[in-house]
Structures are given as structure tokens and as C-alpha cells.
Prior knowledge:
single chain; mainly alpha; Growth Hormone, Chain: A; 20 helices
Amino acid sequence: MSTLEKGLEDVSPERPSDEKNAPEGHEYPPTATDIHDPDAGLSEEERAAHDRKLLWKLDVKLIPWLSFLYLISFLDRTNIGNAKIDGLQEDLHMTNGQYNATLSIFFVSYALFEPLTNVLLKRLRPSIFIPIIMVLWGITMTTMGLVHNFSGLMAARWWLGVAEAGLFPGVNYYLSCWYKRSEFGIRAAIFFSAAALAGSFGGLLAAAIAQMDGIGGKRGWAWIFILEGLATIVVGIISYWMVHDFPDEARFLTPDDRARVIRRLRADKQSSAEHESFQMSYFWASVKDWKTWCFAIIYMGCDGALYAFSLFLPSIIAQLGYKSTTANLLSVPPYAAAAVMTVFIGWVADRTRQRGLCNILVSLLGIVGFSMLLGSAKPGVQYAGTFLGALGIYPCIANTISWASNNVEGVYKRGVTLGFVIGWGNLNGVVSSNIYRGQDKPRYKPGHGTVLAYLLVFLFGGSVMTRVLLANENKKRRNGERDHWAEGKSEKEVEMLGDRRPDFMYTL
């Protein structure tokens, strides 16, 4: 246990910054936290100035590099779509079903290992865990450019899923342990916007690398895998010095700044400020929580659509009559628009605290976009539909993760929940990778119809249902119907109830 934790372990929680969430008539007494506050005695303006400097320091140290890592991660898992239109399937003598199987197997291993990775991240430390998995998936990525048949590509894609499983849920969980709920959404959006940038950048990069066709006896698609894999290995090694540990151990913070981070989390009523040792009870608390499965349904809707879109967008555009290089380049603008929209929605959701409503409204864009793809054969209408599809899918990924994180409290419980939510969503990549079949060219109606159903039923419908259930639970807590959960418990025991505290109000 760190010196900071020893000094704060018996400290009771601060008064919430948003006291309107407290039960009516409840008063928060002065706490011992104020005694250990490095800004004690300062004016509100001076404290706010310290907080602004701290937030800027966190943003500069954490967000850019982590976003860069996710850009590489998403690039490495989806560049197979760019390789396909450059001759991968023909050169490896694969049928359409075999190509789709290489897409599917990634999601099986990826989803299976995701619920476990956040526990490993916490126990091994981010500065150790993330570089290890990056080097491993970089090696795997490189080998994809050396395979000669279907079975070799299948093996490589399986291990790529295993290695990449820890990054996306891990980083979202990690960031949620640094920021207040009202600050987390835009950071998660900036982090995830790297996926949209990866799609945009990936098309440009693939078009450039494919020009190496024939060098060293390798086809252009093989060089896409080899060069991007080698780059991932280098970045993974550098990440040992660039990825920081959790707040109580981060070396770039002064002792006073560490205390400020934990004070801010306590003020936000987050158990992330506390030291926890892993217990299976945290795992089962997540499994038994209805919110886990509601958010899994929502994430299923946007993530299943995301992978179908990102894996097959180059192929969809190619069917509009463009050659492989042009198709790769035309995939850039929809991703660029999605990146901007993702950050904007993250900002709006943080300001309004209406994450569910943002999901509901944004998903309508995707529903309209895929309706256009399904209903029209005109190239212009279909290309416009890809724009709306990207705008309706990408922002909901980051927003759903933020929404789930805001409503689950407890360090390990939140980590396990995010692992389940993201893992279940990614398992639907198995469906996504099999719905755009070669025999359905050029309209791909079964594929577009399936994505439309995912957006309508799971993303839109799931968001509406979850928001109603959360609002109903908040009403019960305001009316005192959950007060009995805290009866007979000490203040410390009540705090450790996490999101089952009667005064914990859900984000809608």
C-alpha cells in the first residue's frame, strides 16, 4: 500500500460536489479528508486554478499517447479489409466463407479474453501490461504478412484477438480511475475517435504501402501487415516509458497532485479513490447487476454495426465502381467526419449528463444511413449513406462506455463490468464478419439489413429501455425506497456499497 493510501485509508468521503444528488434532508458532516487536503485554506478560485492545472497535466500525460495506441490497435485489426481489395483472398486461394472465417475468429478470442484483462491490468500495472500485449500483437501482425494459406491466416487472427483484448477495455477502465464522471465522456470520446482516424488514416496508409507490390517477392497486401506490425512492436517498447500507472503510483505526479486526484474522485463519490484487493465478490457483483447486461445489449448494437462497417467499407465503396486504391481513399472522409462527431457528442454528453439521450438521437443518423444503403442503388445516395452510418455508429461506442462507467462504482466491479460489456459487444463481430457475403454483391442487402436491425433494436431500443430503468431507479432512491440498504452500516461500509449506496444517483 502506498504512503498516500495509508494516510487516506481511514478518511471518510468528502461532500459530493453535486449535492442535488443527495437524499432530501441529508447533510454531509465535515470530514477528515479536509485535514489532508493540500489546498486547505485556499479560496475557491485558487482551488479551481489548481484543479485546472492538474486536469491539463493529466490530459497531456494520458490522452495523446493512449489515443495513439488505440489508433494502432484499430488499424491492425481492420487493415485486413484493405488487404482484401488488394488481392489477399485471391493470393491465398480462399473462398468467401474462409475469408469471413478469418474475420470471425479474431472476435471469438478477443471477446473471450476481454473480461479477464482489466483484472490483469490492475494487478500487473498499466506500464507493464500494455507494452507486453502491444509487442505480442505486433509480432502476430507481422506474421500475417508471411502466411501462405488459409490456416496460417486463421492462426494469426486468433492470436491477434488474444493480444489486443486488453487495450480498449483496459484503457477505458484506466481513464475512469483518473477523471470525474462529468469529465470522463469527452476523454473517452477523444480516445475512441482514434478508431475513426484509424479508418481514415488506414485507407491512406494501405493505398501507399500497396505500391510496394513485388518488393522482396511479397505482394502489396503482405507489406501492409508486415510494416504495420513492425511499427506496433516499436511503439509497444516505447510504451513502457509512455504509459503511466494508476493515480496512487503515477510517478509524474507530485504527492500533492496525487492527493488532489484522489480528493476529486472522493468528491465525485467514486470508490476509485480507495485501495481494493481483488475478491471474487466483485466479479459476481458485476454478473448479478442488471445494468451490466443492459449496457451489454446497447454496446452490442453499436459495436456489431461498427465492425461490419469498418471491415467492409472499402468493399462497399469498391462496388460503387471504383478501383482498389480509389476505394481505399474514398473510405477516408466518412471516418474523418465520424471522428469529429465522436468528440462533439462526448463534449455534449459531459455538459448535459444526458448520455442515454445522446445515444438515442445519434443512433437515428445511423438508422437513416443504412436505410439509404439498403433502399437505393444510386452510388451518390449510397456513399452519403456511409457518411450517416459512420456518424450514427462511432459516437455511440465511446458514449456507451462512458455511460456504463458512470453508473458502476467500485474499482474492480467497474473493471469487470466494462470487460463484460465490451467483450459481449465484440463477440458480435462474429456476426458482423459474416453478413457481407461475396454472393450478395453489389448491393449487399443482407449485410445492410442486419446492421440496420442492430442499430434499431439493440442500440436505439436498448438505450431507450436502459434510460427508463435508470430514471425509475433514481426516483426510488429519491423517495427513500432504497434507504434500507444502508441501515445498520458504518459510514465506511456504506461508502463501499458503491453504486448500491442509496444516495448514488445514476447518470441518465
